[in-house]
Amino acid sequence: MAQDFRLPDLGEGLPEAELVQWLVAVGDTVALNQTIAEVETAKAVVELPSPYAGTVTALHAEAGDIVAVGSVLISFDIGGTDAAPPAPAAESQASAPEVATSAPAGPARSEPNLVGYGAAPTGAGRPQRRARVAGAVAAASDTAVLEAAPHDAIQFADVVERPVERPRSTPPVRRFAKQLGIDLALVEASGASGVITRADVEAYATRVGAATTAAASPEPVEAFEMPVPAVAGDRTTRTPIRGVRRMTADAMVRSAFSAPHVTTFLTVDVTATSELIASLKGDRDLQEHRIGIMAVAAKAVCLALSRHPGLNSRWDDAAGEIVEHHYVNLGIAAATGRGLIVPNIRDAQELTLVELADAIRALAETARAGKTAPADMMGGTFSITNVGVFGVDAGTPIINPGEAGILALGAVRRQPWEHRGEIALRDVMTLALSFDHRLVDGEQGSRFLVDVADVLREPGRAMLLR
């Protein structure tokens, strides 16, 4: 029986997604919940599980295509009235354990069980794909035989099989490899993480004699997607507006033209916080937690929000209400190769300084690896962005849609400063708070910023706040 799988709404309310890569091919036998493809939405790269156990009969899109939600993505033969074509005997012996493709007699088949929607049926695992011929061939002579012979006539007994694993890499690297005509399954990762980088692909291209092709490719672009290659004499480069870049642009325009922004600045002496951080780094029990200025600022924000709840609310235009949150989902702006994303730390107000530092570190590592889940970027109540890491003193951050404010941390600089009636060298930084003037008056915003600054100026004051 034939079944079509349509691209589902991935829970983000987005109308489309880009197909990054297929992890199955026509003729493959797949199990229920086996990952069949990677798609990139405006927020994250998402793995799609198979809703059926059966044989792939058709792929309705190619890598790089933009697929609308609800469009047919892949077709299966799941057995029943339409029998699946028999597999070659040699191939069936080399493939993973066979998956049942016909419904048992009696009650009707239940709905497919997807990852995240309950427990899978007993025995529903994730078998390997049919061995890729190109990845299993050990010598050039074998390659010549495979190219010359029809698919059904290939003698798999002479081919050494090895388990096929999906290469770990990022979408830009996959596009770069595709541009060079290189199969990532043949490229070895040089780093301990096992993630294939652009440098790994270039090194492989050089070894196999593709260096001239690699040299003709465009230079790396720090963007969410590889640009369209420039032709000879072209003086411009065009990059499709997709994924995170489009989502960020839409969100910023919506925020700028719906919420009246006000930004206020305050420069503060943070020498005491710098000394605290230095002392914590010297503590052997705390060294691995990497407590920095961002963690202290996050703790200061959580404390200040409890005193100024207007900064932790949202404007519900449809209901004509102001919704005040009694929890803090603290957004942390993270710059990634795909663009700027703002995942949030749930219930940050419940975390200690050490726990906040660990959460920020884990969040940043996940974001840089492109593994941030869409759910982690939804439901934020207030955000922090650290422009100081780029050497910037201050900025006017744009509020994340649905939030009341965002705090920008400037660079910490050692400079002359008045201290106890004298001029001394002190650690100084500038804070910039943007807030929605519909929700927050200038007085409330200013008092909130002063409370955050007081904690950074004298971390011991945190003991007095609640």
From TrEMBL:
Entry EC no(s): 2.3.1.-
Superkingdom in the source lineage: Bacteria
Keywords: Acyltransferase, Lipoyl, Transferase
Stored Gene3D superfamilies: 2.40.50.100, Chloramphenicol acetyltransferase-like domain, E3-binding domain
Record's compositionally biased regions (Low complexity): 89-100
Residue runs in coiled coils: none
Top-level enzyme category: transferase
Pfam families the UniProt entry points to: 2-oxoacid_dh, Biotin_lipoyl, E3_binding
Cofactor(s) in the UniProt record: (R)-lipoate
Stored SUPFAM superfamilies: CoA-dependent acyltransferases, Peripheral subunit-binding domain of 2-oxo acid dehydrogenase complex, Single hybrid motif
Record-annotated Peripheral subunit-binding (PSBD) domain positions: 168-205
Residues of the Lipoyl-binding domain: 2-77
Region (Disordered): 84-127
Family per record: Belongs to the 2-oxoacid dehydrogenase family.
Protein name from the UniProt record: Dihydrolipoamide acetyltransferase component of pyruvate dehydrogenase complex
Lineage: Bacteria, Bacillati, Actinomycetota, Actinomycetes, Micrococcales
